[in-house]
Amino acid sequence: MNDMILTLDDVSIVRSYNTVVRNASINIPENSIIGILGPNGAGKSSLVQAILNLIEYSGTIKYKGKNLKKLSTDKITELGISFVSSNNNIFYGFSIRENLKFAQMLARKRGKEHFSIEEILSLFPILEQRIDQSGSTLSVGEKQNVAIGMCLLSSPDLIILDEISSGLSPIAANMVFDSLKKINEKGVSIVLAEQDVNNVVRTVDSLYILSKGEISYQGTNLEAQRDFSNLISEYFGM
User: Does residue 56 have a pLDDT over 90?
Assistant: First the structure.
């Protein structure tokens, strides 16, 4: 059994006097892909923000056994956690090449590189075709590919992807999810906070469903596929 790279134990989050996450416990083994599935307002992004210590929470969150509660977000990322949201976290005035080189420079400062720029371009061939194109001229899907590439070049051991399929065409979303298995094979653990049921279920090793702030389902990939119709019922609250 793999050691846990990240654990959330009895985590609750209150925002504007409303409990948005209640007593959530999630285990992320090393070298795994874990999905946290739920509709808008379920509490997924709040959980992600809690992991990065961007909001207050009760309970315990540990990364490789280290309690994260008293650490700044910068310190948490220095430990080896990287984050990509649906907001395309790239430098719009820089070319694809410049964005990737900047991220690579940060990785070398840490003395650790999981991926080379060449490997990123192999994962996302469209980026190689447009390597000197400005970030501001890229499609939403291409910007997301650059953001994930930059995240990987920063040499994380764990990446958290929050709603990365948002705004993507079905083809672009499928391509992004297809790349995650290859990324995971390099020893990078992945947490997906998502709404894309089909892509999540086909990609993850284990799945959690967050409904109205509470974990309503937990299962392995095989269990999720077997229980797919029930899972959809849980997901949509029907």
Answer: yes
